[in-house]
Amino acid sequence: MNASTILSGLRQALLLVALLALLSLAACSGRKTIPVGEIPKVTKPSKQVSKMTYSAIAKRANSRRQKLLRSGSEYDRVRNILNRLTAALGTPGDTWPLYIVDGYDVANASAVNQNSIVVYTGLIRRIRDDNMLAAIMGHEIAHILAKHGPDKDRKKKVGTTNMVGNILGVAVSVGAAVVGADPNSARTLGGLAHKGTAVVGTGAILAFDRSQETEADHVGLMIMAKAGYDPRAAVKVWKNSKEIFGGSNSFSFLSTHPSGSTRIDDLEDAMPKALELYKARTGVDLASRE
Ligand SMILES: [Zn+2]
Q1: What span, in angstroms and rounded, lies between the C-alpha atoms of 82 and 98?
Q2: Is the pTM of this model over 0.85?
Q3: Which of the four, 14, 107, 150, 174, has the lowest number of CB atoms within 10 Å?
Q4: 103: left (phi over 0), alpha (psi -120 to 50) or beta
């Protein structure tokens, strides 16, 4: 990889991070934090929104020359994890649409509008441990259940009145890396991220976002534990975030995520409760084995 390829890759990663910052704007004031150990109720998705979400995701993937996978071993692996996580919430898996996006080694996952989950093959290929993948997906589901997303005032303030802001308005991501340069994707991402760039520099919005991230970490931890996935894997994800997110996590963390140690400390704080839920589900007491 030569210097210009690396630079171009970095530029794409920055643009993507700016886009993600735009998509993961925090919700609103006045809402109570979800207590550690609690999982909010699932809201039934509307068919119309699911349809709109599908066409928006397909359009975006198409414009970036990425493929949407609806079958195959990678799809099945993630589908099984999603089914197990959502069964723990008391909802059937088929009310949670799953989109696997293949292209450019993007290591990312996001929750989009109501119950739709997007996972990129770059992430699936980098994580061999299902517990770790379940941790990331649990976090994304948590964003949906906690109804995280831009409130009307904030949307107006930062001007997210474009297609992405409206249709994919509550998309939230765990982190991203774009490895390998593609001039088309750079141009597309640049266009989409244009308005997001201003958001990256706005401390107030980022601070909101961090509180949502902590909340999603806590709720996600409970969801995975309730589904019988080892909750300690969530800590492993963030301890190995550089490898998983392709080394771009300094950008991701700066823009949309708390620092690694803060995030890990928050997860550790909620771990005893998660281990209780895990024990109730599996009969295995991981706390006594520490
Ligand atoms: Zn998040």
Answers
A1: 8
A2: no
A3: 14
A4: left
